[in-house]
Amino acid sequence: MAEYEGPKDAGEEIKLLFNTFDTNKDGSISKDELKRLLQHIDDELWSDEVVDKLLLGIDTSGDGELQFTEFWAWIAGHGGTPGVGDEMKAKLIEDAIAKDREKFEAYQAAQEAKAAKAQDKAQRDATAEDKQRQRDAGERVGRKEFVDERVAIGLSKGTAMNQYNKADDDKDGEIDRQELGWLATEQAGTVNQVKGIFKQSHEANNSEAAIMQDIIGTFNMWDTDGSGTVSAEELIRIIQVLNPKLGLKTAEAMIKQADTNGDGEIDVREFVSWISGVNPKKKKAKEIREAKMSMATHMARSAEAKEAGLTAELEELLHNSWQENATRKKIFVSCGTKNLNTNRLCVTCKNRHGWLCHGCGFVSYLDECVNECAPVGTYGWTCLQGDCKKKCGCKKKPAIWQQKGFLQNLDALSKDVKRLLEKP
Prior knowledge:
single chain, mainly alpha, Recoverin, domain 1, 3 domains, four-stranded antiparallel β-sheet, two-stranded antiparallel ribbon, 19 helices, 57% helix
């Protein structure tokens, strides 16, 4: 801040004093201006009558105002006009300097504030430009983009939000290059860390069925070509969302961990075992795992077909592909008629006892699907038998059919609907 420099000599003092009296800056001092300042200094001494008498004595031109030369003569005591007196002169000059200093400092403060504001704006503009450059280069992302990108590769919204909140260290509403780098290194630097992120995301669900549906949903997102397996090239796309520094070497390491049959890709069974960290050994546990995978996969394909407007085509395909498994599992079939979702009873045998749900692919001997996969009326069904027979499947507990009642082919259903419906 510049230092205030007052008047350097008597001439400058008188000029400053004149300008202090001349408040409207018209080049002369009116009676009101003279009175205002003098009464400000001493209102008892400078009454209206005294001011009028003073002006009459020093206004040599008689125009009712003080010109600069008249003011100078009064302050300096020249020209035969009554002088102001040394004591009064000193007081007037002291007051004028104080006002001038105050004005100067206010101006300086305003200029500094203006400069600071301009500097702040320039800094903000430069920061905004730098942030935009980072966004354009993929080095800075907002919350929605960050969360959507991770949800698209199979993470839950909650997990993605937790990652975002941890990464946005400066809480500016975006994640910059440094924060992205920290997140990648801290949470997705190794194969096991990448796997752990998805495992934790799935396990946030409150039921085993929901966990399996999430895992199958993630598999389908990773399998971008819908072939039923995940390749190294597909894995690279996934892991680089979490950590751009990872590449083919990491993808191959992930496949090596999960690929138990050694074909160089990850199928749905391998994926479920790898991501969950559980690989059942006992027969019953394997059957239960297989049933859960099958139901989740079938339901995903049914939902996919419905969204694509291909439900009728998929159900026709599924209707023609269950017989082999029904024979192998010794399930009694006396009808085999495909029914629309609007049919409560079979159009052929006029009843419904044992039936195959086209929503989940499981046999049921209940009014509703054994897996409660969807209300009756959502998907079509195949009538297996209209009446109860000796040693009928209805004698078995529903849990048996939840475990053993899948009549479709899981390997085939691992492919997306488009590939399923492709003609050989």
